[in-house]
Specification:
Order of helices and strands: HHHHEEEHEHEEEHHEE
Radius of gyration: 25 Å
Shape: elongated
Number of helices: 8
Strand content: 15-25%
Strand order of the largest sheet: 1-2-9-7-8
Structural class: alpha/beta
Number of strands: 9
Length: about 250
């Protein structure tokens, strides 16, 4: 068998800059990585160190962080208010830090008036015959999980403002959160209730609303049912999040 060598005549590139200038815009974007690293500022302004850090890591996985102003605007638009931070209910820490990860213990559905949402979630046919009011609908469980999320954010804000600084003497806030990594939700359930995932959506949706989709909503998650929870509550949610380098 004879092998035939085929020589391809390629133009010699002597001026790389000139060659790049003739590339289509889409290809220069790929070269520069701008499809993953969009410009941080419009109008040619310089990016802040935090924005440059996010851009360097890749904005599809590390979006440019929120500002506290944008978070407050989302809270107001959704008619939501962060409750006062509360302490642990037993012998544990509410927050444990490991590098840039914060592990938040399970939080309860504490309402703004300080009361707890109690009861077990049950299917519609059980609710119809319930005269004791000890069962909750999926929608009521969803609202309880919203309270869990708001309490998680309140604890997070309190921890960041007292344990983390963005500069000497400057306390951090929720804008330091670059990613909600995972939620774990536990729903107190009637034996026939099978919509635990819809209940825990209340926490996921609330975090997405307040922190934005990229930071708050695109997280890993588990949702399970149990026959009882501490203090008779209907749902408990714990969280892992990532914060910016400080």
């Amino acid at each position: 068998m004879k092998l035939i060598a085929i020589a391809l005549a390629l133009p010699t590139i002597t001026n790389v800059t000139a060659f790049h200038s003739r590339l289509p815009a889409s290809m220069t974007n790929l070269r520069d990585g701008s499809h993953n690293h969009p410009a941080a500022k419009s109008g040619g302004g310089a990016a802040s160190p935090r924005e440059e850090h996010a851009l360097r890591l890749g904005s599809h996985n590390h979006p440019v962080p929120n500002t506290m102003e944008s978070i407050q605007e989302r809270l107001a638009a959704a008619n939501l208010v962060l409750p006062p931070a509360s302490g642990p209910k037993a012998n544990y820490q509410l927050v444990h830090r490991d590098g840039d990860l914060l592990y938040l213990s399970g939080h309860l559905p504490v309402k703004p008036d300080g009361s707890l949402v109690v009861g077990a979630c049950a299917p519609a046919d059980v609710l119809e015959g319930d005269e004791s009011n000890k069962y909750l609908s999926t929608e009521e469980g969803y609202q309880a999980a919203q309270h869990c999320a708001l309490n998680l954010l309140s604890t997070l804000q309190s921890y960041l403002s007292t344990h983390v600084t963005t500069a000497p003497g400057v306390p951090a806030d929720l804008s330091q959160v670059v990613k909600i990594v995972k939620l774990f939700g536990i729903v107190r359930s009637h034996d026939d209730f099978m919509e635990q995932h819809l209940v825990v959506n209340g926490a996921s949706d609330t975090l997405g609303t307040i922190l934005g989709k990229d930071v708050g909503a695109c997280h890993a998650r588990s949702a399970i049912g149990t026959n009882t929870l501490p203090l008779g509550i209907c749902v408990e949610v714990e969280m892992i999040c990532k914060i910016a380098d400080s």
